[in-house]
């Protein structure tokens, strides 16, 4: 890991999944670009690996880089952290030129909360800038002992098909506990703080994203319509809605909905999970599954509380699925490309798998979500169908549930409490 200047190290820093991955990348690549939602902890983590820091969202520090970014980079102790680089887009070109002249590893760390076309225009796949995605805290990262990056992750433990790898916490959560955690979400400002009303922070966060931050990507859009469309996306989180249903509900046209989908993806607050395909299964649909990347944003957009969610079975199922997907997304984003997250559904919806993870060698893991404390063998019928279709390619499957116990349901198919992601 790079030498860290003393003033840059917060005294109570919490280790993240990204720490091990970032330190590894800096040993191999001249520049690492960390992307992810605003306020998810990118800067705090990057500071642990930087020798000098430039805050480009602060006008006084940005001025020199706007005037002459090449000169402003020279003479600084490396690795140099260029925080919120998109505020001064010319800095990316200066980093590219510096790396082309001297491709030593570990020179630059860039962080950004908005994905822009300039990333690809200025850095056309030379392999010298490597991208790393970060999200809010997962529950495993929030443990007092941290994520313990040397420990096997959830998918590795599931792959082993050994239930001994899933030991319960001293006080296993119940359904209300899970929803409380989902509504709180993973943004550090809420997850690490004792706020009397965390909804105020989340509401302000969403408002800033859909007003100020969105202007950095798309000019001239209607803020009211964008907010309404995000509400529709949140209501459809963990679903496969018809596109027309969504833009009709928001009162916008299909082209506008397409622009808004791209905008929300560029802000890293919503994503579309591709449909899984396989030559053996020609009946699979191709439509993507939609997710809001943090369940707290889903709750905020829908003005939903824990009690609201517990009283609405459809919203409850979507909230559980969105929360679990966030645990998996945070782990996989820093795992070095060891799995792709997909979903599977046959035409007519007769069989549906909430999450399919395709690992190297086309090996498959599959997860089903159930807002139930007592899953039965019947709840695993879609997993059995997939196992029987794939044979040895099917490594393991799990029905993720809200009860206290882990147990086997069938060959290579288990019932795992959601706490299995972090206990």
Describe the structure.
Helix 18 links the parallel strand 10 (363-369) and strand 11 (394-401). This protein has a 6-stranded mixed β-sheet with strand order 8-9-10-11-13-12, with helices on both faces. It folds into 2 domains: 6-133, 3-Layer(aba) Sandwich (Rossmann fold), CATH 3.40.50; 139-421, no CATH class. It has 18 helices and 13 strands. The chain is of the alpha/beta class and 423 residues long. Helix 12 packs across helix 15. The two termini are 27 Å apart. The radius of gyration is 22 Å and the shape is globular.
Oligomer: single chain
Average pLDDT, rounded to a whole number, is 90
Helical coverage, percent range: 25-40%
Radius of gyration: 22 Å
Biggest pleated sheet: 6 strands, mixed
**How many E strands?**
13
Strand order of the largest sheet: 8-9-10-11-13-12
Poorly predicted spans: 1-10
How far is the first residue's CA from the last residue's CA?
27 Å
Q: Which class best fits the helix and strand makeup?
A: alpha/beta
Count of the separate structural domains: 2
Query: Count the helices. How many?
Result: 18
Give a topology summary.
Layout: H1 17-28, E1 31-35, H2 42-47, E2 52-55, H3 59-67, H4 69-73, E3 80-83, H5 90-101, E4 108-112, H6 118-122, E5 129-133, H7 139-142, H8 154-159, H9 175-184, H10 188-191, H11 198-210, H12 223-235, H13 243-250, H14 254-266, E6 270-273, E7 289-292, H15 295-301, H16 306-310, H17 313-333, E8 340-345, E9 352-359, E10 363-369, H18 381-390, E11 394-401, E12 407-410, E13 413-417
Parallel strand pairs: 1-4, 1-5, 2-3, 3-4, 10-11, 11-13
Antiparallel strand pairs: 6-7, 8-9, 9-10, 12-13
């Amino acid at each position: 890991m790079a030498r860290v200047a003393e003033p840059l190290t917060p005294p109570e820093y919490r280790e993240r999944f990204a720490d091990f991955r970032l330190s590894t990348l800096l040993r191999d690549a001249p520049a690492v670009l960390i992307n992810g939602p605003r306020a998810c902890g990118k800067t705090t983590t990057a500071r642990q690996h930087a020798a000098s820091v430039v805050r480009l969202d602060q006008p006084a520090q940005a001025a020199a880089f706007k005037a002459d970014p090449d000169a402003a980079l020279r003479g600084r102790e490396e690795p140099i952290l260029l925080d919120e680089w998109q505020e001064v887009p010319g800095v990316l070109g200066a980093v590219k030129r510096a790396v082309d002249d001297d491709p030593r590893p570990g020179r630059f760390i860039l962080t950004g909360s908005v994905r822009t076309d300039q990333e690809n225009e200025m850095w056309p796949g030379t392999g010298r800038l490597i991208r790393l995605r970060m999200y809010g805290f997962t529950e495993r990262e929030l443990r007092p002992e941290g994520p313990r990056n040397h420990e096997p992750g959830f998918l590795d433990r599931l792959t082993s098909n050994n239930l001994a790898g899933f030991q319960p916490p001293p006080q296993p959560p119940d359904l209300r506990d899970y929803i409380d955690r989902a509504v709180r979400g993973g943004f550090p400002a809420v997850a690490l703080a004792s706020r009397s009303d965390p909804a105020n922070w989340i509401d302000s966060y969403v408002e800033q994203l859909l007003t100020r931050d969105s202007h950095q990507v798309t000019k001239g859009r209607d803020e009211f319509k964008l907010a309404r469309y995000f509400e529709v996306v949140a209501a459809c989180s963990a679903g496969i809605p018809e596109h027309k249903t969504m833009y009709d509900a928001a009162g916008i046209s299909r082209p506008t909905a397409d622009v808004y989908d791209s905008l929300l993806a560029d802000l890293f607050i919503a994503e579309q999970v591709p449909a899984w395909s396989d030559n053996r299964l020609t009946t699979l649909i191709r439509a993507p599954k939609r997710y809001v990347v943090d369940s707290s944003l889903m709750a905020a957009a829908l003005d939903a509380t824990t009690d609201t969610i517990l009283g609405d079975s459809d919203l409850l199922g979507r909230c559980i699925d969105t929360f679990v997907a966030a645990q998996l997304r945070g782990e996989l984003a820093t795992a070095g490309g060891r799995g792709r997250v997909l979903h599977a559904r046959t035409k007519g919806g007769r069989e549906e798998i909430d999450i399919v993870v395709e690992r190297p060698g086309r090996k498959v893991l599959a997860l089903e979500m159930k807002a139930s404390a007592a899953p039965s063998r019947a709840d695993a019928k879609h997993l059995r169908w997939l196992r029987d279709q794939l044979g040895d390619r099917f490594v393991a499957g799990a029905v993720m549930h809200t009860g206290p116990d882990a147990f086997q349901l069938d060959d290579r198919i288990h019932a795992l409490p959601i706490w299995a992601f972090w206990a």
